[in-house]
Amino acid sequence: MGFDFVSEVAARPPLVLGVDPRPAWHPGPDPLAHLEGYATRLMEALAADLAAVKFQYAFFEALGGSGWALLERLVATARVLGLPVVHDAKRGDIGTTAAAYARATLERWPGSALTVNPYLGGDALEPFFAAAARGGGAVFVLVKTSNPGSADFQDLDAGGRPLYLRVAERVAAWAEAWPAEPWSRVGAVVGGTHPEALEALRPVLPASLFLVPGLGAQGASPLPGAGLLWSASRSLFYPDGRPDLEAARRQAAAYLRDLAG
């Protein structure tokens, strides 16, 4: 099968670099060229310290065709560096549309992972699970997100338990159906801004990797734990609010010290 996302990230440090590009923060007459050069150097500098690189699709989509081209080049660069890739696109649709989304991400980039939305139910996610299994990839299902408004729906009472725990029970069944080593191909997105949810969800999802956003700008505190992939975007890609390679190195080292306990 070649490169396998699950086994690769399990053997690496638990820190994920989130790439949310802001061209306006890059100097010079060609901000995208500066951005690409900075992102490449940063991935090279941090490669040994990262579990994966997470590309937030919205920031690339906002740039139109040039953004899509930049995304493809940076994903290719990450793979050349041996870095696992997470496509943070939060896809979720039915039938042939879901299959097309899977082809555009998990099949186009075998050995990568994709974030998905479970709101449309299990049949909408099956094409993503199948594509991940064929290509040695993974799927992270939104369970408890890092934003304050997640409580609007995710914390609703569902038979005496919050809805996010009911979602987690379904994710656990999918994780059992799509095994890999040493974790399932079906993981969960659990915001680090909700440490109580992290604690409550681990026994419900014993086979799943957790993608944990929220470090830095959202205020989450890094906590050590098996199968937790902590993602930092603005605080690591743009430390101090600007592109700064040395500051990013220092920030990564600080996060890894905290995650080592």
Automatic annotation (TrEMBL):
Protein name as annotated: Orotidine-5'-phosphate decarboxylase
PROSITE patterns to which the protein is assigned, alphabetical: OMPDECASE
Broadest EC class assigned to this enzyme: lyase
Domain named Orotidine 5'-phosphate decarboxylase: residues: 14-257
Biological-process GO terms, alphabetical: 'de novo' pyrimidine nucleobase biosynthetic process; 'de novo' UMP biosynthetic process
Functional pathway: Pyrimidine metabolism; UMP biosynthesis via de novo pathway; UMP from orotate: step 2/2
EC code(s) of this entry: 4.1.1.23
Taxonomic placement: Bacteria, Thermotogati, Deinococcota, Deinococci, Thermales
InterPro entries: Aldolase_TIM, OMPdecase_AS, OMPdecase_type-2, OMPdeCOase_dom, RibuloseP-bd_barrel
Keyword list, A-Z: Decarboxylase, Lyase, Pyrimidine biosynthesis
SMART domains assigned to the protein according to its UniProt record, in alphabetical order: OMPdecase
Catalyzed chemical reaction(s): orotidine 5'-phosphate + H(+) = UMP + CO2
